[in-house]
Amino acid sequence: MEKSRSALKHADHIVIKLSSSIVADESGQINDSRLRTLAKEIVTLRDQGRGVILITSGAMRVGLVKLGFKTPVRALAKRQAAASVGQSELIWYYRQIFEELGVRIGQVLLTQADIFDRQRYVHVRDTLSSLIHSYKVLPIINENDTVSVEGIRFGENDRLAALVAVKVEADLLILLSDVAGLYTADPRKHPDASLIPVVTVISPEMEQQATGPSGSGAGGMRAKLQAAKVTMQSGVPMVIASGQEAGIIARIVDGEEIGTLFVPSGAPLRARQRWLGFAAEPKGRVLVDEDAAKALVSANTSLLAVGVTGVSGDFQPGDVVVVIDPDGRQIARGLVSYSADDLRKIQGRHSDEIGAILGTDSSPEVVHRDNLVLL
User: Fold this and answer.
1) Poorest-confidence range of 21-35, 275-289, 291-305?
2) In a domain, 177, yes or no
């Protein structure tokens, strides 16, 4: 554990995400003193020669109050309008704070389409790298809620932060919110719950105990665990900690045992694998039997038609699909070799039968192991 913490001292590229509860209070007022304190810590990291990306929530919370809403709003158009107002308020505020500290900022608004599309995915990386290294600008990122619609939204900025950290090959992701880390149970309901200092494997029990969003935020511990799954498989350490703690960023980077550290496990995925596993948009689902699931997970084999039990969605060869085991769990993602219609015709069949069924020479693999990422 000490070794894992001490490695954070050498983090040169750091992504920091601030939750809505850190950025603004329940009344929608921006937390001036807290943001100024955190800004100084971020500038200190930059002065040490580290590259920093800041991801901020809070635009919706600020905007809803500015527009006079007193209760939570569900209508998408109203939420997008609030995001528009809130974004302008927040970026103006951040500019004022960081300019006083001698740092220029650049606003970057992202939608899932910017991450799902392979070409846009590469452009995002190049833009962020240029801002940080060529122009010494601090990128401040948020989801572009103003134009995002249901179905193409990140849903919460924890996942966005994880995808950005993976994309830029960060050495550390820090999620700061109003919770001190991952607990053995919800500390708001169970006062005897204890903080878990280090996580090397996210167990089903952890996911079951994790709570969803509260207040006007969209995340919660459940979203943070999903973010941790992304970073742990991609070789990026992640820390959940309280943004209310004094000197929190410096203490994390100095290796102090504070918050919960999620330690990467195994060899990190390559760039293409990371895109396949976490950033690409699945076009459909392929259900497999128990034998196929075991072969994929344990033996790193390709997926064959004989192991397919069901197909959903409308996809074409080369699209990304999710592989589902008999218990309904997502066990892999990959590039499929067949269209959904053709796969329905050959599911459950042996490879030597495919040519006769489809009337053409075809690949024996539904998803080749080189195009497959285990989840």
Assistant:
1) 275-289
2) yes
